Amino acid sequence: MSIEKTRPPHGGHGDQGITVLLKRMRDAVAEEVSAQDRLDLLTKVIASHVVADVCSIYLRRPDDVLELYSTQGLKREAVHNTRLNWGEGLVGLVAKRHSPMVTSEAPKHPAFAYRPETGEDPLHSFLGVPLVRSGKTLGVLVIQNRAAREYTFEEIEAVQAVATLLAEIAASGELLSVEETEAVGAMLHRPEKLKGFGIVSGVALGRAVFLQPPAPKHKVFAKDPAAEAARLEEGLTDLRRSVDQMITSNASLSGVSREVLETYRLFAYDRGWKDRLRAAVFSGLTAESAVDQVKAENRARLSQSRDPYLRERLHDLDDLSNRLLRHLSGEKNGGERDLFEETILFARTMGPAELLEYDRKRLKGLVLGEVSATSHVAIVARALKLPMVTGALDAMELTEEGDQAVIDGDAGGIHIRPPSEALEFYRVKQTRYHELEAIYASEKSLPSITKDGVEITIQMNAGLALDLPFLEGTGASGVGLFRTELQFLIGSQLPSVAMQESLYKEALDLADGKPVVFRTADIGGDKTAPYMDHGNEVNPAMGWRGVRMAVDRPGMIRPQLRALLSAAADQTLWVMFPFITLTAEVDEIKSLLDLEIDRARRHGKGLPKDIKIGVMIETPAAAWRADLIAQKVDFLSVGGNDLAQFYFAADRDSERVQRRYDPMNAGFLSFLKETVEKVSRTGTPLSYCGEQTADAVTAAALIGVGVRQFSLPAAFVGPFRRLVRSLDAAEISAWMEKHSVTPEATLRPSFTQFLKDSGAVVE
Ligand code: PEP
Ligand code: MG
């Protein structure tokens, strides 16, 4: 049925009506009577307010059965007798789905479960709203009417507001008996096991801390409304001051980030918001509950909106309400907060700069809501070796700050309040992980040569100065891919030549003579900087990015080349250009480099003693002409992440097409083999820097198609060296040759079996 926004047929609803209702609820809760009588009084108050024939409260028992605890309108003998299983009947469905449900013809609904003892035969309309707290359904509030009528938007809103309060009261101990409140508490603190996506491997144990801490616990009703109003006023003044301060101290912010802050300011000063908060306080709520209350009303209103912009504003309003709650309780925000000795940070999203603000000794792992593997916060987390899991969207709702948490960055597991056996299991796994790291470190000087004597060069990928110490720690022979765009994406403005030069210099110093291949900024695609206008490209991954941007608008690449030339003065400069499709682009980009060399000479600046120019092969067009391109440069590197994306026409970041993006596909491997052979006939060295080599089976397959030089994330250098030493390159090549025309979708199972049979270390 549709939820129409019409005025209710009777007076007393809307904001005004809710205020009256809340007052009556406060009086009911304050009655010195038994818990059951108090509950009955509440159902009566609610029923009369929304003009319902029936108002019932079902509460969830520890065995997940929903029991009728109180009713106004159903037969009394049904109380504590009528029970529904989780998901059973309309009530069970509301609980299971976590969301309200309305129907004007309940008996006709396929999920309807008839309970004769309730005497509900003549009832037609049904409105059920879950009582949700900390992400868990504690019960269901049900409104029923004899007539087959449609509930108005205002009625639904009022019932939702009441349900929010009921859940809060149930958890606070103001409603139920001591034992029942304890049972609710136990339910809220049950262990939870969630499945997300492992983005940075490793196991982390610690206590949960939220990037935006949740609202602290508080009383629902207050005795002195005037005092609460004064607290509210003070909280609002503090909030406004802090938002103003945020805007002044981020004066350089532009684009979306700036917009977000301005919206915050608009909301913080909004008269209507303040009036509604005050009205809620004068109805008898504490300032904190008033904030919750108005937040729930906004939520009910805005979440129905078809306008995505308005729905998005809901997050801003929620964030602002949470900030106000923290001002009311005097708690600190974000990065200034004290961390536990071992902390797991939870956030819906976060930027790489925010991550860098946290104390690295105490921060052990990250749980983020909506972040992909190639996002910048993920790249920074990898550099910091912080295990990270994403995609478990309700993780924050099911967790409370201070809860014990374990994350498994390999399997994508998140355990909240794990039982002691699980904790023990992960401690062992973590120890094993550290032992393996120690083993890899002890093997860092062993030659990376296959059993049949083929030498494999191992370099590592980097993007921050923070990565460089891993060169020494892993024994990698250099940095085969330094993603310079990170510096451009992390900051709020274009980095100056001096800033760029200083980063490159620092990287070269830390590399201590080992080569560092600087890949010029690959901005565009999914990597957009807040201060850049890319227009509205429908398909940014295939849009104006990488070298295309560089040759069309040299204003950004030329200062970068200047910084690189200067940073590598008197050394060898390795510079690599991304996202080539046409051989002509190689000439264009080289002439830009020549212009900068001339400029440096004219200005009497020092220059590198040698310059090695390379390009990335990351489009099928470039792979097809790889031999021609190879003749124009000193080295090539296959960017397998992008090359596979364009070979399969499957977005590297899309979950849905992951199955179709398979580097173990026989066609893709034979395509690589031809590319490698084509290039090797020219004598130009070629490496592979796509992150697929993090997987041992794929890495072995790449050796099988002739790749002899790799650049991979630091964490995989150790395992990769072990793998290389356990392989027979000739055997693998022969296997690959034999299976290159196989029509099966993936060679993974058969090749894995082959590797295991031949004693390769693939796990
Ligand atoms: C690639 O595409 O394989 C690559 C290494 O570049 P990036 O992941 O930065 O796009
Ligand atoms: Mg790429």
Automatic annotation (TrEMBL):
Alphabetic keyword roster: Cytoplasm, Kinase, Magnesium, Metal-binding, Phosphotransferase system, Sugar transport, Transferase, Transport
EC number(s) reported in the record: 2.7.3.9
Listed SUPFAM superfamilies: Enzyme I of the PEP:sugar phosphotransferase system HPr-binding (sub)domain, GAF domain-like, Phosphoenolpyruvate/pyruvate domain, Phosphohistidine domain
Gene3D superfamilies, A to Z: 3.30.450.40, Phosphoenolpyruvate-binding domains (3.20.20.60), Phosphohistidine domain (3.50.30.10), PtsI, HPr-binding domain (1.10.274.10)
Localisation: Cytoplasm
PANTHER family: PHOSPHOENOLPYRUVATE-PROTEIN PHOSPHOTRANSFERASE
Family statement drawn from the similarity comment of this UniProt entry: Belongs to the PEP-utilizing enzyme family.
Protein name in UniProt: phosphoenolpyruvate--protein phosphotransferase
Organism: Hyphococcus lacteus
